[in-house]
Amino acid sequence: MIPRYSRPEMVDVWSQETKFRIWFEIEAHACDALAELGVIPKSAAEAIWAKGGAATFDIERIDEIERETKHDVIAFLTHLAEIVGPDARFVHQGMTSSDVLDTCFNVQLVRATDILLADTDRLLAALKTRAFEHKDTITIGRSHGIHAEPTTFGVKLALAYAEFERCRQRLVAAREEVATCAISGAVGTFANIDPSVEEHVAKALGLKPEPVSTQVIPRDRHAMFFATLGVVASSIERLATEIRHLQRTEVLEAEEYFSPGQKGSSAMPHKRNPVLTENLTGLARMVRSYAMPAMENVALWHERDISHSSVERMIGPDATVTLDFALARLAGVVEKLVVYPERMMANLERFKGLVHSQRVLLALTQAGVSREDAYKLVQRNAMKVWEEGADFMTELLADADVALALPEAELREKFDLGYHTKHVDTIFRRVFDAC
Amino acid sequence: MIPRYSRPEMVDVWSQETKFRIWFEIEAHACDALAELGVIPKSAAEAIWAKGGAATFDIERIDEIERETKHDVIAFLTHLAEIVGPDARFVHQGMTSSDVLDTCFNVQLVRATDILLADTDRLLAALKTRAFEHKDTITIGRSHGIHAEPTTFGVKLALAYAEFERCRQRLVAAREEVATCAISGAVGTFANIDPSVEEHVAKALGLKPEPVSTQVIPRDRHAMFFATLGVVASSIERLATEIRHLQRTEVLEAEEYFSPGQKGSSAMPHKRNPVLTENLTGLARMVRSYAMPAMENVALWHERDISHSSVERMIGPDATVTLDFALARLAGVVEKLVVYPERMMANLERFKGLVHSQRVLLALTQAGVSREDAYKLVQRNAMKVWEEGADFMTELLADADVALALPEAELREKFDLGYHTKHVDTIFRRVFDAC
Amino acid sequence: MIPRYSRPEMVDVWSQETKFRIWFEIEAHACDALAELGVIPKSAAEAIWAKGGAATFDIERIDEIERETKHDVIAFLTHLAEIVGPDARFVHQGMTSSDVLDTCFNVQLVRATDILLADTDRLLAALKTRAFEHKDTITIGRSHGIHAEPTTFGVKLALAYAEFERCRQRLVAAREEVATCAISGAVGTFANIDPSVEEHVAKALGLKPEPVSTQVIPRDRHAMFFATLGVVASSIERLATEIRHLQRTEVLEAEEYFSPGQKGSSAMPHKRNPVLTENLTGLARMVRSYAMPAMENVALWHERDISHSSVERMIGPDATVTLDFALARLAGVVEKLVVYPERMMANLERFKGLVHSQRVLLALTQAGVSREDAYKLVQRNAMKVWEEGADFMTELLADADVALALPEAELREKFDLGYHTKHVDTIFRRVFDAC
Amino acid sequence: MIPRYSRPEMVDVWSQETKFRIWFEIEAHACDALAELGVIPKSAAEAIWAKGGAATFDIERIDEIERETKHDVIAFLTHLAEIVGPDARFVHQGMTSSDVLDTCFNVQLVRATDILLADTDRLLAALKTRAFEHKDTITIGRSHGIHAEPTTFGVKLALAYAEFERCRQRLVAAREEVATCAISGAVGTFANIDPSVEEHVAKALGLKPEPVSTQVIPRDRHAMFFATLGVVASSIERLATEIRHLQRTEVLEAEEYFSPGQKGSSAMPHKRNPVLTENLTGLARMVRSYAMPAMENVALWHERDISHSSVERMIGPDATVTLDFALARLAGVVEKLVVYPERMMANLERFKGLVHSQRVLLALTQAGVSREDAYKLVQRNAMKVWEEGADFMTELLADADVALALPEAELREKFDLGYHTKHVDTIFRRVFDAC
């Protein structure tokens, strides 16, 4: 997480201010429940909410206390006591630091996911708009980077839409993974705190109680969370790579929007580089990499060790801030993508008619030619186009063996581009109607 | 995937025989649908089923053809034609290799997941049995590897149960991710094959049609699949690490079952090493590592490239075979785990009474002592136990400041172990009732 | 490691036969040293060499014993005793299994590296030959996938040469990392075996004694080894990606050799897909991924645990066999790469003269125009080429402001391609003379 | 990189101030060389050094320009022109942004490595001091977490010393990997800039010229660099894990230093948790994870793309700052580690005499008992110790079969601890004399 690749709303989720506010809310909600149980006075719970709720926590002061105690939650509680006064002794009763830390971390992850979901929605909206705009924009489909058969640019975008729709569902599942609350005390036995406190705090914060925790919330949940972010990042990389390819000098079927003042290169003014999608490719590598330490975090020793903490202090913000930035950047790229339909058509027609070879092959077999023979017939004419720049249909019409099997009219019909787009509506219905 | 860490049922999923059989079924089901549409004769579809269904595919022969054509699907189709005869020309009409390869890969992943789910069920059953067996077996809970407060061995196992129950749900979700079928022809436009063929094949194979494919089934699905396996492996590592810790010479609260003939070491016959769980730790590292190339596979170029293929030929079997083996091994370890409740109690009592310090601390604050003062009171007595081997209760009873705040009877009551286990039933209800 | 991506010589390094032969040699060399020290009779050492050296180890039999003892080294020693007879009791005196296992693993890694070095040499030779062949073959250099300035195809290959020359040096260093021998007994104290035995065995096997081992050879060595393989794989991916780009339909400056019988696609006979380099891209992902578990293997518990073993049983063969295959495949691709110099030139001339914009910019600033103004002058003319397909030189000659700063002759001189290649000799000297 | 895990000296390497200063120096040194060649006036080069050298670059202003131009190097050059005046037009002649960016990045990595080497030296010094302090401190060696045979705590530390000595050598090699300079202009052909400029700048900055670059310095160098950091981090994890194990309640052979004011837990005041080494375990996971994106960065497209940039903006600081912090923290832990030799001896004697079983086994075989029989003899007595808490020597003396083979005096001699430490001097000589 560096400022260059950060957006303020997500950065706020991870600020010290936000963290201490959530810590306070967890403690104060717990006090409510403890007061309800009669463990602490109701007046104390009220005083804690009143004074803590009104206060601005002094981060400098908390840091100062932590430097002495080397314990962040104690530092915060000490500062809270400075604000709340004597009633502060009722705070944190029967709780352990992890109750506060882990529940807070999950609240932050849930909030982060809500932002990521909003980002994804914006991206989905952009993809849908552009997909319908280019539903019928014919372009060559490529496999192995080699021309294959025609498709439409809208279908490419519909694919991206379906992929990010899946990513959205995965993010929803990932959110559910981490939307739990643990207020179960040391080693998670509830010895010192009634399970109803956990239930109350969970409900107040929009979380579910963790069925069984061991002082910490089990880290398989977070491993799944960060692994999911890595998959989403990989989908970003896929679309970014597609755009980078389309912007290549020799292809140039689409371009990132290039603002008037922008300079592409210090030396070559004509260059318009796909720098945003290249950047997204790099950011995807980063988000993906965070899945590994998150998985290594699962095997904590016994009821907990604290090795996960440093990892999460880094990847919590790093992964979510970077992914938020990347999703927003990608949405912007899609929204403003400059598309060149004429170039798409020009590229498609590069090898005159050769894209229709599959249809001709099929027609020949359907006309009774054996698969092997049909393959050879198509191949020998295709090679003339490939090597000599001939026109595929002309060559086929001049091939006696082809003519024998396939009347001219039927052959000509095989070169109709509409043939390839006849099911685009079906695809669009499948992709967009369900959502 | 090496024989040492493989089980036959899962290995079968990835055999050449299985693969070619699935390829055949995909082709034959497609022929049914094509015949229904009138594209090919019904008699051809029937002949294909009859002859192909009865045949044993000659893997040597297919390999031989592939060496010439350098294309595996063509090699198979050529061999199929040798079996089926002239009707073979109706096979694969309008389809592309990826239709066969990708749908087959997904069928294999679905079957693999079904085995993994069965493995997980066995593990869950073992965990449940042992958890109830040790529901009330008191043991010390540890944080940072340091004694914390008492819990029960059953709670430890309940935690593992809940974790693998989540893993089960994740596997179900991962199965759904990959349970799709694509029969959409070159670049996925259905130009040469009607979408109804895909729907028919999907249904016949227990899959859903891929809403939009680009010759290949999008690899974000597989990335999510393998990432999920990595998370499951990480949970295996957690439980394996727990058992390794418990089997340490100084802890020795549990041991892997040690069969009579087994030798622990060539040199030290008294050693019983936790070799199964150490092995599981290593296997978890492997399964986890496969998530990375699976994520890198997502960004295929344009409508597809084939870079994912070599990765999947390796991690498809490697990840599922290894995880199957690991889950089964872990289930066996849990089923036969030798548990030493007396050692658990002896370890717990190692520092006489010190495990009750948290309760004493709480009691003091509830008796009106400030949190800071209570902390100091507990700390000064605790240090005597720690450093001089004193008895905690004796020291506290002799501490005038403690006595002032807390009557003896009340203090003694704080050393009751039952206090720590009073919510074990709640935890068990939460964990096991829901399932 | 799967047969498809394996070569026999490397597979042999990892065979059971090879492993048991190395185990035998370690034990027999140790016996020589022990006999020299007078610990065991010289006649025993001689008998062990004589009988064991002549024997073929019965892998079935060893497996059978291991199934009972669950210990592979004991199984081997038991079998060896069956071959050697009573003198077998002098084998393995004071040694521990890890002495055999770890030293053997390192011997295998050293042999594997020797093969990888030979592979690299073949690749370097191919790159050098092709680099000199195309030293002066002009091609467009591209940054961001966008045309930048001219270079030569030979320079591209010289870069690859320099990169693999570095990889070679890294492999040599990696070899040295693992070329150690440990015969230090349980926990590595030499309590039961004299250090001179280790020195003798090390020398006999071409290794160095491990200065200090803890029953196992420290795994940071192997982490470095496998990390290095991951870097070499990443360099393979770079060159493979370059070739995939060059083979794109729209670029087509080079192609993988396409053998006469080969079929590119079951459906589109005209397609020649860069399947080898795509395959290499996937294999690189795999080799790279093995670095992670190798690094996780470092933190073994205390003097050793066996979690590394399952990882190494898999990645030892997997990483080296795959990298061997990949290097050999890449060498073949380079050796037979079909290069199209005319297409390179045609692509370069695609935007008439625009590639010279940098030179014109420089000429303008040298002629006294401010950097900012020169940039604008170049930009406005470049845009006409870009957007209207104009000729860059014609536009510049027609631009009064340009003419004012730069005489026509001088401007024309800026369009000389030789300008860009004048230092190619220097680059080649730097790259190839040092080696 | 977060403040919590950062040290100022390393953070400074990555500051904007440092970066712009290095950029300036690269440009100014290049101007010197260009002036020497007569390409630009000597007075200009002097003026640039004079004015730029004296100036403080205004980061706010540079950011402001970058927001418009979206290009960081142009922004810097524009600001430099504001400082230098008209002579600024001679800056950056024939260079490309990557010349500045990549050379600067390498200068930063070299400086970072110098700090890491100093950290390693401090760690090595601490390990050496403590190793000699505990050269003869007997402790039990453990394999699989199970007692094996005696060793000394000094040997454990000597092993760590040897491991970090290797890490030091790897860091030196990694430094050399990245200590290169490229001033080769667009696509690296030196078309616009003489190779002698690169040589001059390289020399001035203590770097070597990159033999062949393609606008960017090849990223295999950086992949190797970050992979090396990952290996070093893994060695940190190993030692940290060792200490965590030693501090376990049941083991307690060593402890992290616990400062007087420090609080171990908010709830359990007696707890002293190995939080520093747990933290190091987590940090190691992070540093290791950065190797992956660094390896993915290698395969840039053609002569360069910019996908590596975002990765390096993050992992450049993240990896080096975190590793610097971790090495320094580990050095501090080692320097102040509290060691408990009596506890080591107590743990060793836990199973009376059983640690000597290997010696007894050996003695029996040397006395003529077959290996299999000796094993059984040792095993049956060892099991009594294990299961009934008997004394090993007593049992052996009472075993008629043992007595038959081994006289009492000889047996007693096998229980001498000095036997295990007799080669400690050899080990220390091997480890410390070479360095």
TrEMBL record, chains A, B, C, D:
Arranged from A to Z, the UniProt key words for this protein are: Lyase, Purine biosynthesis
GO cellular component, alphabetical, reads: cytosol
Q: Which residues form the Adenylosuccinate lyase C-terminal domain?
A: 352-432
SMART domains this protein is in? ADSL_C (SM00998)
- Reactions this protein catalyses: (2S)-2-[5-amino-1-(5-phospho-beta-D-ribosyl)imidazole-4-carboxamido]succinate = 5-amino-1-(5-phospho-beta-D-ribosyl)imidazole-4-carboxamide + fumarate; N(6)-(1,2-dicarboxyethyl)-AMP = fumarate + AMP
InterPro entries, per the entry: AdenyloSucc_lyase_C, Fumarase/histidase_N, Fumarate_lyase_CS, Fumarate_lyase_fam, Fumarate_lyase_N, L-Aspartase-like, Pur_lyase
Q: In which pathway does it act?
A: Purine metabolism; IMP biosynthesis via de novo pathway; 5-amino-1-(5-phospho-D-ribosyl)imidazole-4-carboxamide from 5-amino-1-(5-phospho-D-ribosyl)imidazole-4-carboxylate: step 2/2; Purine metabolism; AMP biosynthesis via de novo pathway; AMP from IMP: step 2/2
Q: Where are the transmembrane segments?
A: none
Its Enzyme Commission number? 4.3.2.2
Single biological process term from Gene Ontology: 'de novo' AMP biosynthetic process
UniProt-recorded Gene Ontology molecular function terms: (S)-2-(5-amino-1-(5-phospho-D-ribosyl)imidazole-4-carboxamido) succinate lyase (fumarate-forming) activity; N6-(1,2-dicarboxyethyl)AMP AMP-lyase (fumarate-forming) activity
Entry similarity comment: Belongs to the lyase 1 family. Adenylosuccinate lyase subfamily.
> What is the name of this protein?
Adenylosuccinate lyase
State the organism of origin: Plantimonas leprariae
